[in-house]
Design goal:
This protein is α/β, with parallel strands linked by helices and about 350 residues long. Helices cover about 50% and strands about 10% of the residues. It is globular, with a radius of gyration of 19 Å. The structure holds coproporphyrinogen III.
């Protein structure tokens, strides 16, 4: 059965414009908090296919989004390459031993060896594939990965960073090492995405959440070309699987965007009309409500109306311009989804 969300990714006519929200499975849902408690902690939840599948479906059932995004985290990839990972409450992710030199990189698993360790992700997808097929509705399943650059920032800094000074020091003083890291991660990610597709996802998204840390003239060299390499590897093998690229906050690079993929995710700092002007003919655009508008139903409705006006219900997927925050009232998220459907219904 053709799914509305997949059709929209290919720019086909759909009865309404589909919507989903980045980070839609998470802490703003009390049902998520209950399952996370049952799992013990966040990483245990990622490692438990049955529970991960359950939280993946929560926003579909509770909020009414048109696509489920696999519940996992981008950092399971470096974790399975051999980097010990902890999620400290209130502080976010921490790698015990960040990469400092070539020997640290060489000690990590690469290619098939690393991709084969992520079996719990593929098992989660298989459960979801079966559950979604059984429902017989039109909900799609999105698989995802972090972009090599975004993953590398954590692998080099060891944790989230405001300044990116350690990885940028490497960028300007030892670019060969940074490229070796990016290449090794790219090889793992290609196979990781391939295996997610083989396990049953309908669409894949590549998150480059920390794209804006790179100056525009260096963005292609250190991030975009690796994302395109992954996208083109997948499009050559699976032309029927849409690929979504989400490089966050890179308006200056937008006129130079190139590559074989289907959907460009627009973040909330980039005006939709500007993205449309440069990319609208070549790519379907996804986005881009400022996630904090979700605190107000009026502010949400205003934005949904204006996005609909800009995009005209064509070559568009509604989404937030980044992830939903944990203290957003669920009823406001439901309101957002209803408004997207209402304004775009044909
Ligand atoms: O609903 C979904 O979008 C699917 C699940 C998902 C998670 N992380 C679950 C998660 C997805 C797609 C991600 C991607 C992710 N993870 C990104 C890229 C997307 C983005 O938001 O830019 C990044 C940068 C990460 C790394 C990461 N994971 C950080 C920095 C943190 C801590 C900060 C935070 O939000 O708490 C996480 C933890 C994380 N990943 C949580 C969830 C639901 C919170 C963990 C918890 O339950 O306490």
């Amino acid at each position: 059965m053709s799914k509305i969300f997949v059709d929209a990714c290919f720019g086909k006519e759909t009865p309404y414009t589909p919507v989903w929200m980045m980070r839609q499975a998470g802490r703003y849902l009390k049902e998520y908090m209950e399952v996370r408690k049952q799992a013990g902690n966040f990483l245990n939840l990622c490692h438990n296919p049955k529970l991960a599948a359950e939280v993946t479906l929560q926003p579909v059932d509770i909020v009414g989004v048109d696509a489920a995004i696999l519940f996992s985290d981008i950092l399971v990839v470096p974790n399975e390459m051999g980097m010990k990972l902890d999620f400290l409450s209130g502080e976010g992710p921490v790698f015990e031993k960040p990469i400092k030199n070539q020997a640290d990189l060489d000690a990590l698993l690469g290619g098939e060896e690393a991709a084969n360790k992520l079996t719990y992700v593929y098992d989660t997808i298989k459960i979801l594939r079966e559950a979604l097929d059984k429902r017989g509705d039109e909900k799609a399943l999105i698989g995802f990965t972090g972009a090599p650059w975004t993953l590398a920032t954590y692998m080099i800094e060891g944790e989230g960073t405001k300044t990116y000074n350690i990885c940028k020091k490497m960028m300007y003083s030892n670019p060969e090492l940074l490229h070796s890291i990016l290449k090794k991660v790219t090889e793992v990610v290609k196979l990781y995405m391939q295996k997610q597709i083989e396990a049953g996802v309908d669409v894949v998204q590549i998150f480059d959440s920390w794209a804006a840390a790179i100056e525009p003239s260096k963005y292609d060299e250190f991030s975009w070309k690796y994302m395109v390499e992954i996208a083109e590897y997948l499009k050559a093998k699976y032309p029927h699987i849409p690929v979504i690229m989400f490089p966050k906050s890179i308006p200056a690079f937008i006129p130079q965007v190139y590559g074989n993929f289907d959907v460009f995710g627009v973040d909330w700092s980039t005006p939709m009309a500007y993205a449309k002007e440069h990319l609208g003919d070549r790519y379907v655009l996804q986005g881009n409500m400022e996630p904090c508008r979700l605190y107000s139903k009026e502010a949400t409705s205003f934005c949904v109306e204006s996005l609909q006006k800009t995009m005209g219900g064509k070559r568009h997927i509604f989404n937030l311009g980044h992830g939903i925050l944990p203290d957003v009232p669920v009823e406001n998220a439901i309101h957002f989804v209803k408004e997207c459907h209402r304004v775009s219904k044909k």
